[in-house]
Amino acid sequence: MKGSNTTDLAISFIDWNPYAPDSSMGLWQEVELTELQGGQSAYVTIANPLVNSTVNRQSNSAILRVMCEVSNYDDTSGMVVEETLCASIIDPNTNEEIAQQCQNISIPSGTYNAKVFFAPPMAVENVRLWWPYHMGTPYLYVLRFFFATTPDNILLESKFGIRQVESKLITAYQYTLFQVNGVDMIVLGGGYAPDLLLQFEQNARDNDTFIRRQLQYVQWMGLNTIRMEGNFQNEHFYQLCDELGILVMPGLPCCDSWQHWSDWTSQTYSVAQE
């Protein structure tokens, strides 16, 4: 690694195949176009939900902090969408709502990926925790977003596990100890690369079977963790990992500025932090 390579800001994945003759792979995932029409709220989308959990195993309870990103794709009228956005948590076993929090939002026209934090945090009792493979059941709850004025119109639905992941440095031995829900965890993992022929999302059912089988191979090898080297996957992949109790360690690609910390600029730090 010399010269300009040390400052090459790469956001990509490693493809171990020989280079294509024209040095270009073209499109490697499906392209989707979504038409938004109707009232002002029809131009609003919800994406990238996140639930941060603080777990108390002694009282079998948890504090849940919910966040999502909201976009207003109406970039011509100048209309500001003012709504009450609600986040609801459902236990799939009973189909009962165990918690709900609503937040007033004001999203100007042409706003993309505005972060919305639901306050105060939600307190839940008698929780079923998510555990990694080998440690217990990876129990999942359902998270739904909707406007208070139209509760039957679900804007986004996803699954998540109530879990608290922590790490600390053991200075005496110079290694990192990981804990899940306060229990020490042994990380058993290996690197993961996508299909080298980039056969992705050709058929939703076949793709689910293909990825699920790969993740089951991870379990059969006795592993509980996989590492990405820049080849970040779609949401469905991570949902399957959650379902099967597989932890994911996303990593940045080697052979560029990411492994040359002394040469990092403010831009590099900003991208790494994001």
Automatic annotation (TrEMBL):
The Glycoside hydrolase family 2 immunoglobulin-like beta-sandwich domain, residue ranges: 45-163
Any one GO BP annotation for this protein: carbohydrate metabolic process
Keywords: Hydrolase
Any Pfam family hit: Glyco_hydro_2
Species for this entry: Reticulomyxa filosa
Superkingdom in the source lineage: Eukaryota
Protein name: Glycosyl hydrolase
Molecular function (Gene Ontology), one example: hydrolase activity, hydrolyzing O-glycosyl compounds
InterPro entries: Beta-gal/glucu_dom_sf, EBDG/EBM, GH, Ig-like_fold, Ig-like_GH2
